[in-house]
Amino acid sequence: MNYFEAMDFIGEFTKSGAPIKDLSRAEELMRSVGDPQEKLRFVHIAGTNGKGTTVEFISEVLMEAGYTTGQFTSPYILRYNDRIRVNGTEISDEDLARICTEVAEKVGERRDYSQFEITMAIAMLYFLEKRCGIVVLEAGIGGLLDCTNVIPSPEVAVITSVALDHTDILGKTIKEIAVQKAGIIKPGCDVVTALSIPKEAYDVIKKVAGFYGADVYLSFFEQLAYYDDQGIAVQAGSKSYHLKMNSVAAWRDLSTALMVFEILKRRGFDISEDDISIGVGRARVIGRTEYFHGDPDVILDGSHNMEGVDALERTLNFYTDGHVPVITVAGMIRSKDYHSCIERIAGFSCAVLTVDDFAPNAVPAEELAQLAGDDAYPYDSLEEAFLKAQDMARSVNGMVVVCGSLYLVSEFASSDMYRGDRK
Predict the structure, then answer these.
(1) Is 352 within 8 Å of 328 (Cβ atoms)?
(2) Element (H, E) at 371
(3) Where are the domains of the chain?
(4) CA-angle at 353, arms to 349 and 356, nearest 5°
(5) In angstroms, rounded to a whole number, what is the distance separating the alpha carbons of residues 202 and 47?
(6) Which of 4, 133, 116 is closest to 65 using CA atoms?
(7) Rounded distance, CA 29 to CA 33, Å?
(8) Beta carbons of 129 and 52 less than 8 angstroms apart
(9) How far apart are CA 320 and CA 311, in angstroms?
(10) 3-282 has which fold?
């Protein structure tokens, strides 16, 4: 099986697979490939928002401290391979095809698995082969029934945030969603949650942790962002950090990661303050409030639910103090609360240019424009909308924001419109 045949094989499975009520199907798949996850150590990360950023902060610090670090994230941004990385380097086409062949032999004719489960099996075999000392594992959706939850008890179970998203799958209330996120808690692990977790979610997390005898640690590092001679500095506790990711959301996730480092050190990991400062300063995620200076300035952001859009608006206020006109290119998919999000986006934008060519389940551009109000205009393509948005921003000394979906971010970051470093 070569790389293209491996991609075809994975494509034979649906994204979610047949409906499940427990983890037995994922457990069966992992048993068939030798349960590689049982021989690895993990930091397991769940949450509505902030998972990817927190993965990068933790991974970079562990790498700086000398640990061979596996990283499992979703969805991919540029291509499938970037979901599976060791020490920041994605799995090669050759290794992916070789390990996928091994998995395919065990799967046989079964096609009720999900693409995510197949990817998880490939990743665990790869991490074991590379002798990873620790794997930083991002849950897909929820946690309790997510296939990443087949792992043994992690060193730390991290819950970055709990907000309304994927309500058709996880539940209609914060409490119901918190039950799913708290499902990653297991006996013998420690639990870290963000300070911003809603009380009703925190109560659920505490209850589940208590049942398993796990200690819960709220991140107590309050963040203060300010400008110094090196740019933006973020004070967390008694220390200040200079980051590549500067947004309200990233600063919150930094606080969560700092608490994770405290727990890992107590568990015997050798992590110095220099490791932390260098590692978090190196961390970045494509499309997580990336700010590109130019004519005009452009922000690319993957916010796709109300909590994310709120963080984006507060970040814009930090950068502009509300005095710079914002022209927004927006696209969203139907499974999100696009009604509320686009209304909020329109509220901080002088104009909204809507697109739908980035995903098959995107909300039609015309429908999204109608929801955004009078100063909203549908466009046939992302590139056309972005070019127009730049012209509009230049005419009013404004800036451009591209946001609304991680699939939109992926499309943008894969094109010539992207000004950042794809490495």
Answers:
(1) yes
(2) helix 365-372
(3) 3-282, 290-413
(4) 130
(5) 12
(6) 133
(7) 7
(8) no
(9) 14
(10) UDP-N-acetylmuramoyl-L-alanine:D-glutamate ligase (3.40.1190)
* pLDDT in single tens digits along all 423 residues of the chain: 999 999 999 999 998 777 888 999 999 999 999 999 999 999 999 998 899 999 999 999 999 999 999 999 988 889 999 999 999 999 999 999 999 999 999 999 999 999 999 999 999 999 999 999 999 999 998 899 999 999 999 999 999 999 877 767 778 899 999 999 999 999 999 999 988 899 999 999 999 999 999 999 998 767 788 888 788 888 887 889 999 988 888 989 999 999 999 999 999 999 999 999 999 999 999 888 899 999 999 999 988 889 899 999 999 998 888 899 999 999 999 988 899 999 999 999 999 999 999 999 999 999 999 999 999 999 999 999 999 999 999 999 999 999 999 899 999 999 999 988 776
| pTM metric for this prediction | 0.94
Per the CATH hierarchy, to which homologous superfamily does domain 290-413 belong?
A: Mur ligase, C-terminal domain (3.90.190.20)
**Closest Cα to residue 405, out of 347, 335, 350?**
335
CA atoms in the 13 A half-sphere facing the CB of 230:
9
**Distance (Å, whole) CA 306 – CA 243:** 25
